[in-house]
Specification:
The complex is a heterodimer of chains A (165) and B (254).
Chain A: H1 6-17, E1 21-22, E2 25-29, H2 30-33, E3 36-41, E4 47-51, H3 60-74, E5 80-84, H4 97-106, E6 108-109, E7 135-139, E8 147-152, E9 158-162
Parallel strand pairs in A: 4-5, 6-9
Antiparallel strand pairs in A: 1-2, 3-4, 7-8, 8-9
Chain B: H1 8-28, H2 37-65, H3 71-76, H4 87-90, H5 96-117, H6 123-151, H7 155-168, H8 180-187, H9 198-211, H10 234-248
Classes of the chains: A alpha/beta (165), B mainly alpha (254).
The structure holds zinc ion.
Residues 127, 129-130, 132, 152, 154-155, 157 of chain A line the site of zinc ion (ZN).
């Protein structure tokens, strides 16, 4: 097999990495989440993957780090280093349009608005089931660090909201 | 143990990391016991954020120290006099009112602290601060809401919250104290003038207390000492529980 150019090699790795999902939201890949920052390949086929952690104490990060190594190993990359970078800090703005659609389909309301224009007041959150914006915050904290609990006043369903941070 | 002269940079990071870790551990004590499910989730989430911040700060401290101690070594193998967390955060949980009062006083302080540390000349510390600031502000929104809800709530909740504030108020001045480590870190552009945050902290806290119909305590006592490793009796018990496993089975992995 002819060696791939570095750019092609990086593309291939990025493609493989779409298999790594956020363990807490299994429909989202690390690309969708904006966790995957960069992929670098050296001449000796050593791979460095840089990821941006979401919340400081998010236990999913350790799982993601392991998953990246495992998936790449299964595709023939034995020399993989996963680097965690703090700057730029992760923000929910990094979730891709594709990721937002997936969240919605999964029953989690995607973050409303931009993280920078949070005024402290609750944003208009649309119910992922009936799309009504007549919803209310039940709790600022949900089952994982990235979610808050909402309830729809229209269809009465409770749902998770992906916090806008 | 008599410790040799320590590096002020290391010492400074330890103070920050230790306060986050000890408060995170305190919140974890609520696991399975919170008054309602939503608060169980909230307290655990906030605790996890704090422990996450502590991991970043302590592993950075270990690197700055350069003696091969990582975050786990620092968390599990230091005795009580070697801890540098604020006395406020080691205070016992008490009832939900006391836990929330402690949280509100600390969250308000920590948000201001991280906001200023975001400009630190220590770029790793600055990055940790930017990241953690978002979390601290989110936590403060939660604890602030509870201050309003309980303070301006029933007679029972108001009485309990006022009592909690009175019990904790004597630990507040320590938040703003400064010693030679702080001075050295300010001079190096790494640390911040904590004392300068007092006025802003006061006005934020007073505003909430007044809206919550609570009285700003006038307790006439204040204690400090954490910067020198002098703690209240509560920290030893907390450490005994937190450190038991790694000390009983050193280097155990799971
Ligand atoms: Zn609905």
């Amino acid at each position: 097999m002819a060696p791939l150019s570095q750019a092609t090699e990086q593309e291939r790795i990025r493609e493989i990495l779409t298999m790594v999902k956020d363990p807490e939201i299994p429909v989202l890949s690390i690309q969708d989440m904006g966790i995957l920052q960069s992929v670098q390949v050296t001449a000796g086929n050593a791979v460095q993957v840089s990821i941006i952690p979401t919340y400081s104490g998010c236990p999913a990060m350790d799982v993601i780090r392991e998953e990246i190594k495992t998936v790449l190993l299964l595709h023939g990359y034995g020399d993989v280093c996963v680097k965690t970078i703090l700057s730029p800090a992760w923000s929910s703005d990094l979730i891709t349009a594709h990721g937002r659609r997936k969240l919605q389909e999964f029953g989690i309301a995607p973050p409303a608005g931009k993280s920078s224009d949070q005024t402290g007041e609750g944003p208009d959150v649309a119910c992922p089931y009936c799309q009504s914006t007549d919803t209310r915050l039940v709790s600022q904290f949900g089952s994982t660090a990235c979610k808050a609990l909402y309830k729809c006043n229209n269809c009465l369903e409770p749902f998770d909201y992906f916090k806008c941070v | 143990m008599n410790r040799p002269e320590t590096d002020p940079h290391f010492e400074y990071l330890l103070r920050l990391g230790d306060s986050s870790l000890i408060l995170g551990q305190r919140l974890a004590e609520w696991c399975g016991k919170a008054p309602i499910l939503e608060e169980e989730l909230a307290l655990m989430n906030i605790g996890l954020d704090l422990i996450g911040q502590a991991r970043l700060l302590l592993s950075h401290a270990g690197q700055v120290e350069g003696r091969g101690r990582d975050e786990d070594r620092l968390a599990f193998f230091r005795d009580v006099q070697e801890w540098r967390n604020l006395l406020l955060v080691e205070q016992e949980n008490g009832d939900f009112a006391k836990t929330m009062a402690r949280q509100f006083l600390f969250d308000t302080f920590q948000g201001l602290q991280y906001r200023e540390l975001a400009a630190s000349a220590d770029s790793t510390l600055a990055e940790i601060a930017v990241k953690s600031l978002k979390e601290a502000e989110y936590h403060q929104r939660h604890s602030r809401n509870w201050m309003l809800r309980m303070g301006d709530g029933t007679e029972e909740s108001h009485t309990r919250l006022q009592k909690a504030l009175d019990e904790l108020w004597g630990y507040v001045p320590e938040l703003f104290e400064m010693d030679e480590v702080d001075q050295a870190m300010i001079a190096a552009g790494i640390g911040i003038d904590t004392n300068a945050l007092r006025a802003e902290w006061d006005s934020r806290v007073r505003e909430v207390l007044s809206e919550a119909t609570l009285t700003v305590p006038d307790v006439g006592w204040a204690v400090s000492g954490s910067r020198k490793g002098q703690h209240t009796e509560h920290l030893g018990y907390l450490l005994a529980e937190m450190q038991f496993l790694p000390r009983a089975y050193p280097d155990a992995r799971w």
